[in-house]
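Entry 14. Structure prediction run on the chain below.
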Amino acid sequence: MSVQLDSVANTRRVEMAVAGPGNANRLFVLAGMAAFQVRGHSSDWRKDSVSFSVGNTTLVPQQVVNMVATASLAGIPHGGAGWAVDNVTAHLDAHSHQIMLQAQMAVRDTDGFMLQMAYHVTVLARV
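Output returned:
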């Protein structure tokens, strides 16, 4: 099951010319905050995911040399429960030219809520 995204805010994008590695000549950095609501149900971990666009580009998949994504918890309203961002990946959607981020996360306990996470995606490309 996938969590519904409420909003993306505080978005930032930086593009800079680079000389490598290899044939790469552009570096894109995209960052922001994603808002959603996930609540734990019991003492077991509730595992779920959220997917969303972090930005539009004119890139095609063949131009992407490497892409790295990270995410961290950014909104925790209660103590005494467990929260985790287990895995984060990003890819370029070939049809929409959107850079898509997917985060696998987990929440434990009935008073465990996740409301936000900060994200950061770095794209090394040849344009």
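The first strand starts at residue 5 and ends at 17.
Filed with the rest of this week's runs.
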